[in-house]
Design goal:
It is elongated and about 55 Å long. By secondary structure, the protein is of the alpha/beta class. A 5-stranded parallel β-sheet has the order 2-1-3-4-5, with helices on both faces. A 4-stranded antiparallel β-sheet has the order 6-7-8-9, covered by helices on one side. It has 2 domains: about 120 residues, Rossmann fold, CATH 3.40.50.2300; about 100 residues, Orthogonal Bundle (Arc Repressor Mutant, subunit A). The protein contains 8 helices and 12 strands. Strand 1, helix 1 and strand 2 form a beta-alpha-beta unit. The two termini are about 25 Å apart.
């Protein structure tokens, strides 16, 4: 899952990056409204976290501009402006949710997961690939009814494969989905996480659901075999 944070508070952005990355999200940041618009146009994001009071263009105008161009990415406004009219303006310009600073990181995480549930087609939050169950909203994985403990990054890699079952997904595509631009690694890091996933979701159950495809790709079988 990729998140774009648009906020001019460098300290807050650093905290958001640290916390969200620990939850397995890839996080990019823009420090003013115009840079945020450019990044949103250049990359596909699952959620945008947007401040209101920023240089060059405020958050209301950024939100209105994105919606006017047809960008339907869920937007969570995260701001110290706590008046009723402030919240109403944010929602009326196209934001999907509004959270006031200071905030609880637990609440922020819950709001982000709720946005993703609401904006994904029905039936895509929990996937059943044979006896493998992947719950993207709760970020949980089960096989044959048994809970499998995955790290946030392991789950993100698995989820990136599960978005395209029975399809070869190249290592660079997984890298782009799971790691953000500021934390970019070489594609071989993907092999490390694929190996970890196989040790957890396949071998203990006598399965081989993650297949290696010649040319540097991996495929997650929909039958869970």
């Amino acid at each position: 899952m990729r998140i774009l944070v648009i906020d001019d508070d460098a300290r807050l952005v650093a905290l958001l990056k640290q916390g969200l990355r620990a939850e397995g999200y890839a996080v990019d940041a823009a420090h003013d409204g115009l840079e945020g618009i450019r990044r949103a146009a250049d990359e596909a994001y699952d959620v945008i976290i947007l401040d209101v009071m920023m240089p060059r263009m405020n958050g209301y105008d950024v939100c209105a501009h994105l919606r006017s161009t047809g960008d339907r990415t869920p937007i969570l406004m995260l701001t110290a402006k706590d008046g009723d009219y402030d919240q109403a303006e944010g929602l009326e310009t196209g934001a999907d949710d509004y959270l006031i600073k200071p905030f609880s990181f637990v609440v922020l995480g819950a709001r982000l997961r709720a946005l993703m549930r609401r904006t994904r087609p029905a039936g895509q939050v929990v996937q059943h690939l044979g006896d493998l169950e992947i719950d993207s909203a709760a970020r949980r994985c089960r096989r044959a009814g048994i809970e499998i403990q995955l790290t946030a990054r392991e789950f993100a890699v698995l989820a990136s494969l599960a978005e395209h079952p029975d399809t070869a997904v190249h290592k660079t595509a997984i890298l782009d989905t799971v790691w953000d631009s500021a934390d970019r690694r070489g594609p071989n890091i993907v092999e490390v996480y694929i190996s970890a996933l196989r040790r957890k979701i396949d071998r203990p159950f006598g399965r081989a659901s993650i297949e290696t495809v010649p040319g540097g790709s991996y495929r997650l079988r929909s039958d869970g075999a």
